[in-house]
Amino acid sequence: MTRLATAARRPVTWKTSFLAAGTRSRCTVYTLDDRDKFAVFRPVGRLPIQIEHTIPVVSNTWPSCCRPLERTDEILGGVRHRSPPTASLCKVLLPLQGSGYVKSQTLPTDPAQVLASYPAEFQPRLVEDLGGAGGYSGARFWRIESPAGSMCLRCWPTEHPTTEGLEFIHSVLWFACQDGIDFVPLPVETNTQSSYVQTSGHLWELSPWMPGRADYLADPRPEKLRAAMIALATFHTACDSFPLPHCQPTSAPGIVARRRRVQKLLRGDLDDLRHSITPGRWPDLEFRAIRLFELFSQAVDQVARSLNRAASASVALQPCLRDIWSDHVLFEGDEVTALVDFGAMRPDNVATDIARLLGSMAADDRSAWADGLEAYATLRPVSDAERLLIDAFDQSNVLMSGLNWLDWIYRQQRTFENAAAIPSRLDGQIARLEHLV
């Protein structure tokens, strides 16, 4: 695949929508204000479809599956195209038979019956139930040994993601893999060319089992931290030209959301959370909760000022992982073998991922932070505005992460398979809060 970044860094100036014959799916072309006339066709909802041909945007030579049935044009960015898109030759993403992601059918919830929705090479020889695999998302996992190799079957919790959200995640992973990224698990297609199975309120996906171990905290070394940051920068670079509906610089959504959250806490939600702590329910958390409330009161003004400064910065948005931390980076030795768990992916500024990963690996070691940022910047420069956002993201992570756990446990009444590890996680967050104040 010709990498979109070579063209998509230039201004997008023309958008064409059409209905594709056969599938009748609404598609969009973005034509760039350059003689290359590079364009991208994709269904609404950002579902990926396969590059096949270079053909005129409007021509009698369109394949029957992609011939426009109706069409509307609009000019983007206030810049008129040098020539109408009817005259340009473009790289075209075609919704061909057997390609792309489509809405899946409803199937029974038995993992064996879900697996029956996949081609023969993915049928199980051995199935190992991993439960929650030590995570906290509510997802459930199975390791599958199949003729195609080791696979991971994942059942998402009913609460998240939505079908649209999962389609967005899969489309970004597909996009990155087309750019040569080989350290993310791209879901395989079902017999009906879907990237997931939907049944009884759950979404299921099957992807390659990725090698390596999430052992950074057990064996932290500068080489591993640098490798993790380089892998993150590589992923960001591969995704920076992913076509989002709104591509103009703006305030980072994560910063805006955190400002609102802080304001809500100060308007009474903090008191409500404090009153929800049920004495005797979980004694190991109660004294930690008291300390978290004390430290929040001491740190909130400082963090609020940092968020206000960050909210005034206009920055580029692109797909971001938003929950990339030490447990989601797999290693063999000092080398990164995989980034995993993309359930929180949304458009944001890369600063949210940098802050999340470095915060989990470097904590308050400023030398390690500088080392990690330097490694990241060898592939993708970090602007002054993004550095401002990194500080704000990290400080707000420190301020509110512990409160999030209290909210999930006491108000939302969530249960966690790996509950025994939660007190130690809170201890780490308390230690960072104490350093912040």
Annotation field: number of helices: 10
Strands ordered across the widest β-sheet: 7-8-9-11-10
The rounded distance between the terminal residues' Cα atoms is 50 Å
Tally of distinct domains: 3
How would you describe what is shown here?
The protein has 437 residues and is α+β, with helices and mostly antiparallel strands. It folds into 3 domains: 5-94, no CATH class; 111-208, Phosphorylase Kinase, domain 1 (2-Layer Sandwich); 222-436, Aminoglycoside phosphotransferase (APH), C-terminal lobe (Aminoglycoside 3'-phosphotransferase, Chain: A, domain 2, Alpha-Beta Complex). It contains 10 helices and 15 strands. The strands form 5 sheets. Strands 7-8-9-11-10 form a 5-stranded antiparallel sheet. A 4-stranded antiparallel sheet has the order 3-2-1-5, with no helix packed on it. Strands 4-6 form a two-stranded antiparallel ribbon. A hairpin with a 2-residue loop joins strand 8 (140-146) and strand 9. It is globular.
